[in-house]
Structure formats: structure tokens, C-alpha cells
Write a structure and sequence with these properties.
Pectate Lyase C-like; six-stranded parallel β-sheet; 44% strand; 1 helix; mainly beta
Length: 186
């Protein structure tokens, strides 16, 4: 394991964490991660449980999975989350704002949620495995105002796994979707 935090407060800037079983594991902590590179970690690049978290920027690429945020609150912004074997981001029982990220090329879902407590906007979420977004819960999830790699809502809807695909899942509200990649000019 790269770094394990329990009942801690930590600020991590521009770190390079790679080649571990898990990159960072935080439980019951307050964690601020600014920039940095998380790659080639066998399981999760970052696994956050029961914590306050702010992730601002950085590259989370080519890991077993990107971010797993469980029973936590905070935000994820400005990160490049791509090329992970599993999902890019998993939210479960977490009030997390996900905005301004590039979530592409993950072999699993780009983003996966288990309830409707979080929100996602202003992201580029496209070209992920079978689906760009998966709602694994029964709650509705708000993901309007993202770029999905297409402008036609029916094309976007085919890349989202929700009530339209499985009647036992909650809906993902993805419209209005952005007409272009908000991160293309950065």
C-alpha cells in the first residue's frame, strides 16, 4: 500500500504514487489531494471511506480502478481519470460533487454510483468500456451538463446504464448535455 490514513488529516500535493496494491486508503479522515500522479496501482488508486475529501487535479491513470469514495463527502475536480481497468469513479453513500474532470478510456464504467447523493456536472465522460455511466442503485442521479462525446440524447442514453436499461435501477438525468467538450480549451 502506498499510503494508509486512519482518523487523520492530510494534505498531499503533487505526489507520485504508483506500483502499489492500493495507492491511498483513507478511513475516517480529512484528505486534500492536489495534483499528482496515481498509476499502476493493482486495486484502487484512491479508496476513501467515511471521510471528508477534496481532490483537485491530478492524473489517475492505468490502475485497477480509479477512485472509490464510500460514505464520504467532498469534491473531485480537475482530474484526468483514464485507462483504469475497472471504473473511473465509484460513489457510494457519498455526498460528493464531481465537476470539471476528464473521465475517459476506463475499461469499466467511467462513473458508477450506488445512490443519488452525489452530483456530476461539467465533466467530459466518454469512450469508456461498455457504459460511460452506471447507476447501480434505485435512486435518481443528477448528471446534467456534462459532455458525453455526442450531442444527440438518444446516442448518449445508449451509453448510460440506468432505468432505461434495467427497470430496477434509478434514472440518470443527463440532459441538457453539453454541446462540446468543456475541457478542450484547457
Amino acid at each position: 500500500m502506498g499510503l494508509s490514513l486512519t482518523d487523520s488529516e492530510a494534505e498531499i500535493r503533487d505526489a507520485g504514487i504508483s506500483g502499489n496494491r492500493q495507492g491511498i486508503v483513507a478511513a475516517g479522515s480529512s484528505l486534500y489531494v492536489a495534483g499528482g500522479t496515481f498509476s499502476r496501482n493493482d486495486l484502487d488508486a484512491l479508496k476513501i471511506t467515511g471521510s471528508r475529501v477534496k481532490i483537485a487535479g491530478g492524473n489517475i491513470t492505468v490502475n485497477g480502478a480509479g477512485l472509490a469514495i464510500l460514505s464520504s463527502q467532498g469534491s473531485v475536480s480537475g482530474a484526468k481519470i483514464s485507462g483504469n481497468s475497472g471504473y473511473g469513479i465509484l460513489l457510494s453513500d457519498s455526498r460528493v460533487k464531481v465537476y470539471g474532470n476528464e473521465i475517459t478510456g476506463n475499461r469499466g464504467a467511467g462513473m458508477k454510483v450506488e445512490d443519488g447523493k452525489g452530483v456530476a456536472w461539467g465533466n467530459s465522460i466518454f469512450a469508456n468500456g461498455e457504459y460511460d455511466f452506471v447507476n447501480d442503485g434505485i435512486d435518481e442521479f443528477w448528471a446534467a451538463g456534462n459532455w458525453w462525446g455526442a450531442t444527440d440524447p438518444s446516442d448518449v442514453g445508449k451509453r448510460i446504464y440506468d432505468r432505461q436499461t434495467d427497470n430496477g435501477r434509478g434514472r440518470v438525468f443527463f440532459t441538457p448535455n453539453l454541446a462540446g467538450n468543456p475541457l478542450a480549451l484547457l
